[in-house]
Amino acid sequence: MLWGFIALLVHLAAIWFTLGFMQEDEHFQILEFAGLKLGWTQPQLLPWEFASRIRPALQPIMVLATSRFFSLLNPYIIALIFRFFAGIFGWAVSLIFIYQASCKWENLSAKKNLYIFNAIFGFMAFFHARFSSENMAGSFCFLGLSILLMLWNNPNFKRQGVWFFLIGLAFGLATDCRIQTLFIPLGIIIWGLINRKFTPGGFLVLTLGGLMAIGVGIYADYIFYDHTWIFTAYNYFQVNMIQGKAAAFGVLPWYWYFIGLGFVPFNPIGIILIVSFLYFIIRYPRSIFTWVCVPFLLVHFIIGHKELRFLYPLVDCCPFFIMFAMEDGINYLKALRPKFGSYHQKIINSLFLIIALTSLPMCLKPANLEFNIFKTVQDKYPGRKVLLLGLHQWPFGINTPLPLMFYRPGKYPFARLDQSSQLDSCLKAYSQPLILYTYQKGIHQPEIIDSAHAQAKLLFCSAPEFLMKNNFNHWQERTTVLSIYEVYRK
Q: Which residue, 125, 123, 130, is CA-closest to 23?
């Protein structure tokens, strides 16, 4: 299928280019946790969740086991492998889901539009390329749902026991990755029981699959947390809900998700999604797709601490809701005024253009600028010792509260520079290359280099090269740019 292949290309671009993380937990609670067991960091440099033992260890154990089995020492290769795994898995699940969700649609044009939307929605590819708890849990949930839809759409499908076991396994692995996603399969199962979609045997096998997956997660916690039997889901509830640790990071009203998704900042796609979702659940309250989302959303509305990423496990159903509502809305207008039919596809195409222009570029650049610092050193000085210097900041992450130790496993020292005399001292004391990075407004060599009577060669600049010599309307003075230099004595 053409649009499935295009979706694959977009996902591969996101996998290759989006080095870094969308949110800090994606890195610090997975890669840095694995880095501890690899000997690349220390416990005191990990987030507080490590000492509280509330972070599920399944994903860090996957990183650790893969790194040791293949003797991988390059952190960029390790991160790329797991972006590839997460991205391809997410791509496959999204295609399976929209195929099963739309298999009873009679309008072939609507089906095609759904596949197009799925292919060009760049945020979905960007999100799928994240080996985060939100993405992996969402992909496992929608894998289980897709298999269920396959069985319910084809009641004579053979070997249903095996498939129900796989469904339970998928739902259990989702909760292993992120316990909050438990309410997605819970809503699906309640819907199935109400509508008598489960046979007693099928439900029993599904439950066994889920319990086995949860057992795997508990065993992963046992291995990771110094061979101590713990249940991180219970610890999470105790610390964040009972002790109120999560609320210490901020409490927002129940309706904040609507504001954050569509209006802060103004996000036309977010507004369309909100309207489409509300339209669907009001018109089809008994649909399984309503029950997939509503229990999960209600729990997150109730919880005081809110972040948009908490809702990202539902991202795979966004194209479905939007295209369903768009088709229904346009068909309603066509019934009122038949001439409106000639504008049907033009409206859809306009929506596609907006989606492509606003979301595809995010698949073609690093998720974080600071990862270019370590990548530049890795690429230009492989196997060599360098001294990494940060101008007015520590060179282990520009916007992170903790050091990104996973990407510098003891390979080179680092220091912070605030005065030219410090740079002079470094130039005299070190014979290896000195790498200085700046994160400041404008494209210009920092004054500290001239003050120290040094020379510098630009290795990397986050601004595109064709713009570096063009300061139209003084854009450079208003733009924060990452620049990386090799500094040496005159």
A: 130
All structural domains of the chain with their residue ranges = 2-364, 371-489
- Hunting for tokens 């539009």 — which residue is that? 113
Put residue 435 in one of left, alpha, beta given phi > 0 → left and psi -120 to 50 → alpha.
Answer: beta
- The residues near 7 (Cβ < 8 Å, ≥ 6 apart) are 91, 94, 95, 115, 118, 119, 125
The string of pLDDT tens digits covering residues 176-219 is 999 999 999 999 999 999 999 998 998 999 999 999 999 999 99
SS3 assignment, position 266: strand
In 10 A of CB 283, how many CB atoms?
12
Q: What single letter denotes the amino acid at residue 443?
A: I
Question: Residue 317 in contact with residue 117, Cβ under 8 Å?
Answer: no
Residue among 154, 156, 253, 148 nearest 193 (CA): 148
Q: What is the DSSP string of 7-33?
A: HHHHHHHHHHH--S-SSHHHIIIIIHH
- Tokens describing residue 40: 């690349």
- Band of pLDDT at residue 368, cut at 50, 70 and 90: confident
Amino acid at 43: P
- In 394-476, the DSSP E strands lie at 414-417, 434-441, 454-461
Q: Helix, strand or coil for residue 50?
A: helix
pTM, 2 dp: 0.89
Sign of the four-CA dihedral 91, 96, 99, 101: negative
Closest C-alpha among 40, 140, 39, 23 to residue 85: 140
- Which of 402, 384, 398 is CA-nearest to residue 481? 398
Cβ burial of 461 (10 Å; 0-12, 13-18, 19+) is middle
User: With 70 as the cut, is the pLDDT of residue 490 above it?
Assistant: yes
Tell me the average pLDDT across 309-317: 95
* CA–CA dist 270, 164 (Å, integer): 35
Residue 409 zone, left/alpha/beta (φ > 0; ψ -120 to 50; rest) = beta
Backbone angles phi, psi at 58, to 5 degrees: -60, -50
Among residues 227, 141, 154, the alpha carbon closest in space to that of 182 is found at 141
The Cα 266–Cα 271 span in angstroms is: 8
**Nearest of 276, 248, 251, 273 to residue 262 by alpha carbon:** 273
DSSP code string of 148-189 = HHHHHH-TT-S-HHHHHHHHHHHHHHHHHH-GGGGHHHHHHH
Cβ neighbours around 327 below 10 Å, total: 19
What's the chain's average pLDDT?
88
Q: Which two tokens stand for residue 436?
A: 């200085």
